[in-house]
Specification:
The protein starts with 8 loop residues before the first strand and ends in a 13-residue tail after the last helix. Strands 2-1-3-4-5 form a five-stranded parallel β-sheet. By secondary structure, the protein is α/β, with parallel strands linked by helices. The chain is built from six helices and five strands. About 35% of the residues lie in helices and about 15% in strands.
């Protein structure tokens, strides 16, 4: 008799886009539990093969120790500063992230800051808050 293979269980412990949850559900049994305190995370992490986090949840060596079934730690974002990568590697747990996830947002923000600087936006804002309108000083690079 052929044994039925069980779908991997994934814990999503920080908010991610609903489309991301649905994509995961196409391949795994997914549970979303956001806002877990450390003790709560330690109590449940052993039930999952994978965990997905953003910035709010820290996946420390202690969490990794309790994740006896963990095979993958996913970071829905660029940085890995909230994941103990060395502890994961020592347990042969794959750590994955999305290094280009915020590239467009950073580029847009950079352009906005450059325009604000060129137009003297901070100075104009301060002037307006003082009840003044220094039109000549607000022309920017013209």
């Amino acid at each position: 008799m052929k044994s039925e293979s069980r779908r991997p269980r994934v814990l999503v412990c920080d908010s991610i886009a609903p489309v991301g949850i649905e994509m995961l559900r196409g391949h795994a049994e997914v549970e979303v539990k956001t806002g877990l305190k450390l003790e709560e995370l330690l109590a449940v992490i052993g039930d999952y093969e994978a965990v997905v986090t953003r910035s709010a949840t820290r996946i420390t060596a202690e969490v990794i120790e309790h994740g006896l079934r963990l095979k993958v730690i996913g970071r829905a974002g660029a940085g890995l500063d909230n994941i103990d990568v060395v502890a994961a590697q020592n347990r042969e747990i794959k750590v994955v992230n999305c290094p280009d996830a915020n590239t467009l947002a950073v580029a847009e923000h950079t352009m906005a800051l450059l325009l604000a600087l060129a137009r003297g936006l901070a100075r104009a804002d301060l002037s307006l808050k003082k009840g003044q309108w220094e039109r000549v000083n607000s022309w920017g690079l013209v």
